[in-house]
Amino acid sequence: MTDLLESVHHILGEHLVPPSCLDGLGGQEDGIANQQPVSACKTRIFGLKVVRRILNLASSEWLDEHGLTWLKAAPKIRLLPDTNKRQPYPLNWDEQVRLFQKLPKHLAQMALFAVNTGCRVGEICNLQWEWEQQVPELDTSVFMIPGNAVKNGDDRLVVMNNIALSVVNDLRGKHDTHVFTFRKKPIDHMSNSGWRRAREKAGLPQVRVHDLKHTFGRRLRAAGVSFEDRQDLLGHRSGRMTTHYSAAELTRLIVAANTVCSRGDKKPELVVLRRLSVS
Fold first, then answer.
1. Which residues, 6+ apart, have CB-to-CB distance to 27 below 8 Å?
2. What is this structure's pTM?
3. What's the rounded Cα separation, in Å, for the pair 164 and 230?
4. Are 245 and 101 a contacting pair, CB within 8 Å?
5. Using CA atoms, how far apart are residues 93 and 248, in angstroms rounded to an integer?
6. Which end of the chain is more exposed for a tag (fewer CB within 10 A), N or C?
7. φ, ψ dihedrals at 157, nearest 5°
């Protein structure tokens, strides 16, 4: 499966077959012990998604020499239910402190940025200085990530609260193109041996990098941030024009993002009811 996907990766695009998925289909995924084999169900579901993507492209974008699509219409493919789908694990504040203290400095900076912006791993690893846009009216800046670097293909506005902005400012001038680097080179991924060792030492072997995004979203909701503003801050696709904002709208988003900077006496505590697994 991995060899097949790699051979069509340049055709299907990053949005369906990211390198992390290719790695996972090789026999392991970032599970609790990072050594769990990918379930047969999960592999079949991913294979069906690949086939469905190919058929959709053949019926909409791929044209023959006569200018006609390869297929008149793509057949409907029903995906199998993923009974082994892992539930999100948003961190509470104590868990965040434990985990971040164990991370190497460069990963701790990336994790701190992730938990304060809701960015995905790929967006953080590929974050570039040329995407930063100054907002002099508000004495701050934002990042506008182009759609070809975003999972859903839409341009992604990254609003930074005080903590995220401090991370960026601390890294300013250390690399010509990329914000986050290690030994003066861009970082390909966050879920590496440094991350896995840190979560084991922190007693959080089940936590994945993507849980940082879930943590940001849950904290926004707990702080009473509206659904629409949470969508914009998390970069979720919506019917609104999410790349053009007035100063007042940006101010509202920045204020909302700053509600989750720290655990304060008057801030609601995030309470997560977690299912206990009994072996």
1. 37, 38
2. 0.72
3. 16
4. no
5. 30
6. C
7. -85, 125
Calculate ∠ Cα 36-42-46, nearest 5°.
130
User: Smallest Cα–Cα separation from 47: which of 76, 15, 73, 22?
Assistant: 22
Residue 134, amino acid: Q
216 contacts 116 by C-beta, under 8 angstroms: yes
The secondary element (H helix, E strand) that includes residue 157 is strand 156-158
Q: Of 176, 132, 129, 137, which is closest to residue 157 (Cα–Cα)?
A: 132
CB 245 within 8 A of CB 197: no
Nearest to 141 by CA among 179, 88, 187: 179
Residue 84 has pLDDT above 80, yes or no: no
Q: What is the pLDDT of residues 204-235, one digit of tens each?
A: 999 999 999 999 999 999 999 999 999 999 98
pLDDT-derived band at 93, boundaries 50, 70, 90: very high
Once rounded to an integer, what is the mean pLDDT over residues 151-159? 88
